[in-house]
Structures are given as C-alpha cells and as structure tokens.
Specification:
alpha/beta, seven-stranded parallel sheet, globular
Length: 265
Amino acid sequence: MDISGKVVVVTGGANGIGRALCETFHRAGAAKVVVADLDGERATAAADAIGGAGFACDVARESDLVHVIEESEKQFGPIDLFCSNAGIGGGFDPMMDNAGGAPDAAWEKSWAIHVMAHVHAARHLVPRFRARGGGYFLNTISAAGLLSQVGSAVYATTKHAAVGFAENLAISHKAHNIRVSILCPQGVETDMLKDIPKGPQSNDGNLSADDVARCALDGLARETFLILPHPQVLDYMRRKTDNYDRWIGGMAKLQAATRDMHGKA
C-alpha cells in the first residue's frame, strides 16, 4: 500500500507507537489521519499538529469504534487503512506465583482491548471494504503474541489471540482484496515499557516509537503480513517451532533469571 492520498485511522494515536504512526503517515502524504484515543484532548492535540482529526474513543466499547468509523467516512471519505493500535500494559510481575492468578477484571479488560477491539473494527469495516473492492488493517500486537511474555499470562494470552484473529482475518478476506498486517515489536521506548520489569529479555535493545513506525510504513508498502521491527524475533520463532520443549525450558530459565534480578529465587 502507498499511503499517499489515503484516509487512515489510528486508535491509541495520541502517544507512543500510535502517535508515531500518525506522524509518519502524515509525512508520507496521507490525505487525512484520524487520531482516536481514550484521551480525547490529547487526540485532538496530536491531530492538530498534523492537520488531522481527533476523536475520543474507548476501544473497549464497540459503540465508540462505530462512531469513529462512521464519522471518519462521513467527514473524510472511505477509510483506506485502519490501524487497530490501542493497547494496555499492567500486570507484569516476574514474582507471580500463579499464572492464572490475575483477577477476572484484568483478563476481561485486556481481552476487550487486545482482542475484541480488533474484532469489532473488522465487524464494521469488512462489509465496507468488500463493497468498495478492498481495504487494509494494520493491527499492532507485540512479539509477545508470537513468543510469550514472562511475568504476564494475561498479556501473553490476549496477544496470542490477537495474532490468531489477524491470521483468520487475512485468510478469510484475501480474495476480497482486504489486506492485513500485524506489527510485532519487542521493547519500544513508550510509557507502557515502564510497566515491564527489566530483565535478560531486554538484551535485544529498545527501539524508539519512530523506528517502529518507519518499519510499519515499509511493511505496508510491501504488504507483508508479519512486520518485525526487531528482526531477531523471526529467529526466536523458528527456535520455538523447531523444538517446543527446549524453547519452554529456555523461557523458564529466562523467567527465573528475571526473578533473580528482582530479588526472589
């Protein structure tokens, strides 16, 4: 996809990766960038900086997503690219004693934002994309959806589910000229990174949000499903599928080393 002249919507667009995506798409010549964010004032400020449009949007609420989609198309024309980028951290605890110990509220909130927001966007955009001959989804997920996340079963599980949905979305609608890409970085210098305890998994280095956005733009130009700002993730995926038991053992050692760093054997 060539972003030039396109109408683009980015959820979680007021900060972090989302804001970097908005700014990168603007520089690449997008006709209009719609910034949707839980913080409506910050969404408006981010949009004003690039001549875009800002909307308050809680992606956990289907009605909010419908409002953004309908108003964007009413005001600016058909959406060409929908970036389902909003996400949450929280719940990262290398000391956890039970992978199933997080309260239901944490699971439900993460599921609503990391999975159902993608589903709801597709529910309302796929018919529109099909009717006009195509469209594009960019879903920001995480390398955690391909590998795992030590210290957070909630994050790892919901991100895995997001990958599964994106795969099915791509398979089901390839014949309808609907394209799907998933953006799966490791550490990125954003506020969310502060929620993740430092550990050996940080050895690959953290990228800036601008670096990740540039990778996304390149991946969209190539229309590749899997966009990996940290290229080493592909090697980790191969190791995982080559010998799952060995990979589980290695990840368990990684978690143990992280626990040691934080003072618990």
